[in-house]
Amino acid sequence: MATHAADAFTVQTVKPLIGAVVDTSREALLAGTHAEEIRQLLDERGVLVFPKVHFTDEEQVQFTRTLGNFVPEMHGDIFKISMDKAVNPQADYVKGAFYWHIDGTMQQVPLFASMLTARKLAPEGGNTEFCNTYAAWDALPEGEKERLKDLRVVHSLVAAQLYVEPEPTLAEFEGWSRLGTNELPLVWEHKSGRKSLVLGSTAEYVVDMDPVESRRLLIRLREWATQAQFSLSHKWELGDAVIWDNTGTMHRAMAYPLDCDRQMHRTKLEGEEAFV
């Protein structure tokens, strides 16, 4: 592990290709003192952990605002991620979080970043896993990069929800279908010039490819991108805050007892570039 420190701002890398733990004061985080360094680290490391900072909801929003354009949730500034429908009426939809995904593949401009804070922990399980889709692309053989670079993939909510409920009723299917589909590049060339893979549970099929071969390719690339060298699993401690670059990573929640009151509070940063 590599460590450096300056002005009470210490960064420890988690793995060579992904993740960093940031140690600084809550006051500095809320004031935006190190906002520029944090943005740069987010771009370089993909996932940043701020251990046991114990933000209140108001403080979480305040810190999120220091890093970009804050996006409120549908029913307020914070989204309470819980399987308890009394806490989160969208609990059934949240079950899709157990599968690798990128937030916003049904939009032309996905979220730049999301942050979770741990409010209540599961008695077992419940880690959040991340993988670096920039690093996964970079490590592909040059010949395969050439074959993949111009492919397009159709994404849909239907594809994602079939992971959760593989035998839906027609009414359920029709409800999922209302969001339609979105055709995206398999390989996203960012404004920076870097490239990342656009994968995840919403990926339905590769355009103009045999359906079986299409599914085989998407599964193979998902397995490639989520290998140990490109991924990390964060074991939550109460009060942890974790922010990730949604444009260069995928993430998923690991299994935990659904009848427990695990609670994560989410804030979001507005997207800053469109899928090409």
Overview of the molecule:
With 276 residues, this protein is an alpha+beta fold. 27% of the residues lie in helices and 29% in strands. The protein is built from 9 helices and 17 strands. The chain is globular. The longest helix is centred in the C-terminal third of the chain and has 15 residues, at 211-225.
Count of helical segments? 9
Number of domains: 2
Strand content: 25-35%
Largest sheet properties = 9 strands, mixed
- Unreliable stretches covering 5 or more consecutive residues: 1-6
Ends apart, CA distance between termini: 35 Å
* SS-based class: alpha+beta
Q: What is the chains' assembly state?
A: single chain
Task: Supply database-style keywords.
single chain; 276 residues; alpha+beta; Double-stranded beta-helix; 3-stranded antiparallel beta sheet; 27% helix; disordered N terminus
Quick description:
The chain is of the alpha+beta class and 276 residues long. The protein has nine helices and 17 strands.
Write the layout of secondary structure elements.
Elements: E1 3-6, E2 9-15, E3 18-23, H1 26-31, H2 35-45, E4 47-50, H3 57-65, E5 70-71, E6 79-81, H4 91-94, E7 113-120, E8 128-132, H5 133-138, H6 142-148, E9 152-156, H7 157-164, H8 170-177, E10 181-185, E11 187-189, E12 195-197, E13 203-206, H9 211-225, E14 231-234, E15 241-245, E16 249-253, E17 263-269
Parallel strand pairs: 3-4
Antiparallel strand pairs: 1-2, 2-3, 4-15, 5-17, 6-17, 7-15, 7-17, 8-14, 8-16, 9-10, 9-13, 11-12
